[in-house]
Amino acid sequence: MSKDPDNPETIERTFIAFKPDAVQRGIVGEILHRLERAGLKISALKMIHASDELLEEHYSEHKGKDFFQNLVDFMGGGPVIAGVLEGVKAVSVVRKLVGETEPYEAAPGTIRGDYSHVSVEHANRKGKAVKNVIHASGNLEEARKEIDLWFDEDEIFTYERTDDDHIR
Ligand code: IDP
Ligand code: MG
């Protein structure tokens, strides 16, 4: 990837989803604010009660694992708010802001570290998915797959933010 800041190739799009626990706890706005504040542009946003079929495809890399069905049940247990965020190296920037998968290990200051605390061990003992507030694509390839899976092309928008000059 080019290091030239004016090269559009450094601008990436990544997929996020506020999981049902975030929606049900009423903390979506607060968390979205953190992402916007970092300069990430909202290119798409919608509420959706995802089908098992969509979730099984979204998490296809985890098919066959012990927690797979618990994960699908959790993610389909209520509406999620799915979005596309755009920015310089957006995929890794968003993962950094989101923090580690296991809330118990996620650093303070990260979304998962600040808004959740359960351990994988606890979730597995309870037979539940780890409720960790937000999903974010793990890499560029995953981002492309997930954006394509969750959004039609005409649901994704291009526009200028007034602070674009300062953040790119
Ligand atoms: P990620 O969301 O940080 O990319 P993944 O390993 O891709 O983490 O796992 C997807 C989601 O599955 C996690 O965010 C979490 O909600 C859930 N999960 C992962 N590992 C476990 C587990 O061992 N038990 C229960 N749920 C899990
Ligand atoms: Mg993942």
What is the C-level CATH assignment?
Alpha Beta
Q: Can you tell me the CATH topology?
A: Alpha-Beta Plaits
Enumerate the strands of the largest sheet in spatial order, edge to edge or round the barrel: 2-3-1-4
Bound compounds? inosine-5'-diphosphate, magnesium ion
Give the distance, in angstroms, between the N- and C-terminal Cα atoms.
15 Å
Number of domains: 1
Quaternary status: single chain
Largest sheet: 4 strands, antiparallel
The rough form would be described as: globular
The CATH superfamily is known as Nucleoside diphosphate kinase-like domain
Rg for CA atoms: 16 Å
Give the helix/strand class: alpha+beta
User: Stretches where pLDDT falls below 50 for ≥5 residues?
Assistant: 1-5
Provide the descriptors you would attach to this structure in a database record.
168 residues, alpha+beta, Alpha-Beta Plaits, 4-stranded antiparallel beta sheet, disordered N terminus, binds inosine-5'-diphosphate, binds magnesium ion
